[in-house]
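Internal tracking record. Fields below are filled automatically when a chain is submitted to the structure queue. Please do not edit lines marked as system-generated. If the sequence contains nonstandard residues, flag them in the REMARKS field before resubmitting.
Queue: standard
Priority: normal
Entity type: single polypeptide chain
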Amino acid sequence: MRKSTIWVLVAIMALTFAGLLYLQISYLNNIIQIRKEQFSLAVKRSLYDVSEALERDESIRYLQEGLNESQKRLISYEFNNVSNSESLSGNKQINKDNANLKLSHTSDIFNNKKNNIQNSVTKTYMGMQELLKKQYLYQKGLLNDVVLKILNTASLQPILERVDTRQLESYLRAELLNNDINTVFKFAIADGHGKLLYKSQGYAPTSKNNIFTQIIFPNDAPDRIHYIKIYFPSQTKYIMQSVEFMTTSFIFTLAMLLTFIFTIVIALRQKKLSDMKTDFINNMTHEFKTPISTISLAAQMLNDQSIGKNPKMIEHVSKVIIDESSRLRFQVDKVLQMSLLERHKVMMRLTMVDANAVIDKAINTFRLKVEKLGGEMDAHLCSEDTLVEVDEMHFTNVIFNLFDNALKYAYEGRPLKLHVETRVKSGKLEIEIEDNGIGIKKEDLKKIFEKFYRVSTGNVHNVKGFGLGLAYVQKIIEDLKGSIHAESELNIGTKFIIVLPLIKTD
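SYSTEM-GENERATED OUTPUT FOLLOWS
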């Protein structure tokens, strides 16, 4: 798959996921806003019902007190009226008896008495109506006295005497549950100026926006108004719990997005690795082709009879074959190193060696090559003990790789200066190898230890190689429990610093 195709797919999927996330986030925000409004309305409705309950309780309390004060008078008054009523009833019965007796003597007397009885019944009925009217007026007056007492006396009393805080808390809890709000709340009672007269344990709101307020007795005079203040410490958590299903959906979408990103990253890495391996094969073909061609040509020359008569020519051709065979073997070793790095397995035989001695030997071997090209090489090796536990062959290869890099990337037209220094710091050995070559750009510096990576890209390079040298160096140093890092400035030079643990000696 071409890289452009991958980026088109990335753009399409990115836009798709961005749109999906936007819709989900918008929908989630709308639901949360609706839940907040529902919560606010439910709390306000609960507070209003609590306020009504407190007013009702106060009215009942004053009515009970008023009834208790006038109960005896009311009973006495009713008793007197009932006695009068009974007396009237007795007279009615006597008149009826007399009338019955007189009816037996004459019909005229009967008619007269009948009229008298009717008049007596009418008077009794009117008396009962008068009694009920008086009783009604008395009770109405009693209620008016109680209402006046509530209006004139109740609001003058301290609010904490009018409201039982435990009863208030009970009302709040019950009304909130009736409105489907089951979460912890804290409340307080405040006057019209905002001064708190009472607060429940833990009442400490962090923001005024989270406080709900309700007048306790709305009919009180404006200067005697008091408020219930209530807030919910876990209001946000409570609201979010009601939209957990959307949160889960959002998490799944994010998981899909992360999986997509991870897949794209892997695909790009594979594409990059594929390009590097293609580049590696092209370079390897070129590196192998040159020594093979040279060896083939030298072999043909040895078959020439005229060459066989010239010992110096035979010696020269033989040396060419040996040199090119060594070069070919070195390239094969590079490929084997790649195989070891791919499997992350490097077989090492650790021994205790003097690092300064190994480095000095490598310097003496390499100095001739540097001086032959017009450069110079200097070394400052410390005088302290530099015993380290390493595989001497791999450790030597590390030093030679770094020397070889300095030679390959020398600045054209400027004599190479290669500086090597060792020092002991905090029980560790530092090895510094610095050159004055072409340097490395900052964006390339962090990638130079990657396998197959080379600063120059493409199939043609001004410096040939596989891009494995520094990857091999880092792998060996890390396996020896050390570290390596590079410092470089473009067109100025590059410095490699290796840090290895020293072996303590008595």
